[in-house]
Amino acid sequence: MSTLFEFLPIGAYCTSPTGAVLRANTALVRMNGYDTEAQWLEAINTNSDSWYVDPTRRKELRELLDRDNAIINFVSEVQSPRRSGAFWVRESAHAVRDADGTLLYYEGTVEDITAAHLAQLALTQNEERWKLALESTGDGVWDWYVQTGVEFYSRRCKEIYGFAEEEIADRSDALDGRTHPDDVAQMQRDREAHFKGETETYTNEHRVLCKDGTWKWVLTRGMVISRDAHGVPLRMIGTHTDISDRKSAQSLIWKQAHFDTLTGLPNRRMLRERLDNAMRRCQQSKKKLAVLFIDLDHFKEVNDTLGHDNGDRLLVQAAQRILECVGANDTVARMGGDEFTVVLCDAQSHDQVEAILHNILARLANTFVLGAEHVFVSASIGVAIYPLHTTQGEELLKQADQALYVAKGAGRNRFSFYTPALQEAALLRARLAADLRLALPQQQFALVYQPIVHLTSGRVHKAEALLRWQHPQRGMVSPAQFIPIAESTGLILAIGEWVFQQAARQVALWRQRFGEDFQISVNKSPVQFHRQDTSQQAWSTQLQSMGLDGTSIAVEITEGLLLDTNEDVRQQLDTLRAADIAISLDDFGTGYSSLTYLQKIEIDFIKIDQSFVRNLKPASTDLALCRAIILLAHDLGMQVVAEGVETGEQRDLLMAAGCDFGQGYWFARPLGVEAFENFMGS
Ligand code: C2E
Ligand code: CA
Ligand code: CA
Q: How many CA atoms within 13 Å lie on the side-chain side of 95?
């Protein structure tokens, strides 16, 4: 035998035509755990069949050799008495014949491929296990041979879309072709990025057309697992996860976060997005847009008297009406409560914007039918224009809000455009709010007293206490200006207490001077009722401790307070009356003008608002109105004070109408203590 045979690094052998091993080289002997050729030859030739773990393999090998004269890469598991454990070999062999074709012997090679074989086995088992594991999570698995377009889908992968095993071909376009057209481009981009190695794994969310014609959201994840020498992807494996539930939850959450659930309108956040987009478009097209702040007047009353369900119904109808007044590209949003915001995308023409404003006001002023109830509300609108007033979104909203404040202040049911002066007014309010904190500790407040005159006798045994703020720099600031600020900051609570104490001290003095029935009325803000429910009790105790009885003080309240006829407010009013403190209904006729509450709550005086008194003429509607109020009040056992009496004629007409008291410049202006005492002396 040649030296090649002997030194071949792989096993080599030679057998007789019957299969007896004649020669084995060192590699083969060692492979089987033997030291010498003779030892192994003896072992193998004693029991040849037992070399194969599966004895039939030897038979198979021999049959192949007989048939083909050769075998190549015949892999089998073998064993040897000198080796622990089976091992895997790859055999190749061929028959050697003479010129006549007579079989002389067989020669062959044997390679120990155990390591490689086990690795391969583990790999396939792994892959199987891996695919199985993926499937068990409910995901579908795909296995794509990128260059050939062959793609295998697991059963679950087809099932997700409602297909049976045989209904989807083993081709990549079988499912890819069902991708939603809007999602195709992104899917390709994601895939390409992974192919190029830019992403470690491929992930993409897209919709797939199901068998039943519906779309299903899936998350697909995958990875190229083999590439050719140039890095071209050959095979990619991945999964499909059904994410329809997550997607619909997401869209629900998105809706929740961007839309108002009651009206279905965009909410504040969504409005900001829309406004920013609209402004960007306007900037490009050099156009104007308008932001409208709409606030329903008297909505709170509806809510309080007819209940929240009806309030909600009204809001839905109001939203609908506003929507009908604007274009398809405009945005109507609900900011919360009874506030709506509109973005009018085209505000080129001022007239056109005004026309829309008038339309909205008119539509909202129409009757709202809420079940059996017919309700009237109106609206106030503030308007700011981009880019005329500002180019900042947040600022634009603020300006519209400031304009709204003005529209409301001007008497509601109207609109108001932002002007730079409003900005100043807002600034002033902010400054006053800061200064107002110092007013009480620095003793900048004083009370003035306006006589309330008994008309028939001309006697004065009542006065209204009115607050004055002597601002160190600005001089006298009107209560009409600072009371709303005090209310919104809560300072009104402390201020209100101070007013009461001053008035109580004053009435104690004046009862001694001007008679035991003297009474001072103080104005009490609704905020004081809503935020401080113990003070009624405290007021009567304070009066007692000063030796005064309740009749020395009257509390002036506004109609607005009575509209929130909540139990709490009513109890507070009852507590006051139980202490004999009088209740006076201020500014009568300007508010909601519902007389029903007059029967529910005991009131001592009604004060007819000065706006009715101002235009009193013989045979005027206002006179008729005053007469009616006086009649009604007397019927209910109340007395009437007419405010803002400025002329003798007004006084005469009121007296003739049966009015009990008059208050106004014609008698006297609000006076300081000394001036008041002089007035009383004259
Ligand atoms: P009000 O309670 O309706 O007070 C009457 C207002 O009419 C007073 O204005 C008074 O000066 C004014 N007035 C009286 N007679 C006439 C007249 O003949 N013609 C005209 N044109 N006006 C007349 P004032 O003092 O500026 O107070 C404005 C408002 O500020 C008050 O309206 C009241 O709502 C509020 N206010 C004043 N003091 C207090 C207070 O101590 N507490 C609270 N919560 N509000 C107060
Ligand atoms: Ca008053
Ligand atoms: Ca008044």
A: 20
